[in-house]
Amino acid sequence: MLSSFRRFIHSKFGAVFALLFLGVIAAAFILGDISSGNFGSSASGGATVAKAGGSRLTLSAFQERVQRVFENARRANPELQITEFLGQGAAREIYDQLVAAMTLKEYAQDQGVHISKRLVDAQIAQIPAFQDAAGNFSQDNFRQLLQRERITEQALRDDISREVLERQMLAPAGLGVKLSDSLVLPYASLLLESRQGTIAAVPAVAFNDIKDPSEAQLNDFYKSNAARFTIPEQRRIRYAVIDGQRFAQAAQPTDQEIAAAYNQDKANYAAKESRSFEQLILPTEAGAKAIAAQVKAGKSLSAAAQDTGLAVSTLPDQSRQALASTSSAAVADAGFSAKQGDLIGPIRAPLGWLLLRVTAVQTVPARPLAAVKQDIAATLREQKEKRLLTEFTDKIEDEIADGGSFEEVVKDNGLKLETTPFLLATGKQVEDQAYQAAADVQPLLAPLFQMSQDDDAQLIPITPDKRYALAAPAEIRAAAPPPLAKVKELVVLQYKLAKGNEKAKALAEQIRDKVAKGMKLAEAVSAAGVRLPAPQVVGGRRADMLRDGQRPPAEVMILFSMAANSVKTLPIGQDRGYFVVQLNGIKRGDAGDQPELVNQVRSQLGDVVGQEYAQQFVRAVEKELDVERSPTAVADVQRALASTNSGAQ
């Protein structure tokens, strides 16, 4: 019932642009994937926005760090806008983290604490993006990624040193936190608390008597709400595909090459024999001979072994070499000289006396060159295509590195230049919702939306070792609201929705006041003079609502922060109207008889208290070092980034 209630509220009239919620920025900037763009800072000049001892944080370094974190967030959420990012307090969070890192570095130097190069090397080697397919550190990957992200090795090392230093200095502050039952029990009991309430909605769309705005009103509304209509950054992409198939003819192996490959691996094509065995090991020769006699008399080896309380083991598909390695050459020779069904032994073995019975013989005949020629040719062709493709792409990269323009390199190497229309980071087109980006374009979107207009073209794998694209941004259109004429109809709807939202707020407050004075919520809704959805009864236990990381709607969760028998209004959001929420009843929880829950909450609260201790330690160090902070730093960076990232915003 509640779902249908919310469907009415979240109708298409209110869903102009969905806002993306950005959570709290993670405390650590590094020791993740280098492709996150969270490493290093190449800027060191500019005004000082914080100072601790001999260290200072510059405005340019602070701004670059916020920009990098924003770009990282956009990799996961391509439609994220800078206004949304900053609106969640990201710049303040990052500023506090940078100041804390600088403060701890100065304090550590005063205390004689240093991070060794070997420790930093070990941390770098653990970063997944620097590892090859086998999980080992790759110097080539390391250099290429640093170059792509425009980060110096020293900047990376400095950041890792600071992060390791923070861990070493702050982690002990939270160790050994022990919270008593009297402190934990009230919090655990809150999870078992149940609440019930009634929710009424006053949707903005319920007010259908709102007149269309005048041109002046519409222009003013559009200017003041430009962020709502902002189209994310768009880019035209130019690219040229390089496919391994262009070398198909040159990669054809000759008969001589096929014969040479066959002779080189001739052992793999020779006749082979493998055998399966039953094996029994006994401690004495006499015992082994007794079992062997029973088998020769007609009893199976497994049955004879079972009579003495033993069990046979099986050795399936053994080659002569494999059997020799697990037993001895003598055992292998005997095993491969016998016929299927024969019993071998007793034979002296490292662990006792061995009985071995041949249960199966598998033979693979030799394969002549004619039988495997096609397979060898396919393998050689694939290897040669890969080598020729690698040589060709290396040549392309060298030409770009030597200053060749995109057009020159494409023309000189006989490639076909293609250019996309303006695309969003998702590959969609703003003006053609049916547009589908080509399959070759999809892998290019993420890296190309991180490049600047002046960056050299990059070789980007479409299918590793088979297909690549030389690509670069052709044109960048900054995020900005479109001309009003193009979205006038939508803006008129949003204007009327905003006016309806104002009326919804006033009516919701009137209903709230009536209910607070004793009128039933359903009666107050019926007497509103506007057709509204019927109120809905909701509720439940807090633990059930938060199970498995679920997050109930705000209009339900607010019940757990209300006083008994109270009533509140709550905006639906995005000018869609208002809720009137009444708390009907509270059933207190008691976790006294649930020790597992209490211990779980104790552990979670212990982490929180440990983090609080660490924060208090940092604040104490800042006070001791007399750290200076600029009161305008965050606002200055927010203003600069909003301008550079949002075009006309």
Automatic annotation (TrEMBL):
Q: Which InterPro entries match?
A: PPIase_dom_sf, PPIase_PpiC, PpiD_chaperone, Trigger_fact/SurA_dom_sf
- Sorted alphabetically, which SUPFAM superfamilies does this protein's record hold? FKBP-like (SSF54534), Triger factor/SurA peptide-binding domain-like (SSF109998)
The source organism is Sphingobium vermicomposti
**What cellular component GO annotations does this protein have?**
plasma membrane
Keywords in alphabetical order: Cell inner membrane, Cell membrane, Chaperone, Isomerase, Membrane, Rotamase, Transmembrane, Transmembrane helix
- Give membrane topology per the record: Single-pass type II membrane protein
Q: Which residues form the PpiC domain?
A: 232-360
Per the similarity annotation, which family is this? Answer: Belongs to the PpiD chaperone family.
Name of this protein: Parvulin-like PPIase
Q: Does the keyword Chaperone apply?
A: yes
Entry annotated with the keyword Cell inner membrane: yes
Q: Where in the cell is it found?
A: Cell inner membrane
List, in alphabetical order, the Gene Ontology terms for molecular function in this entry: peptidyl-prolyl cis-trans isomerase activity
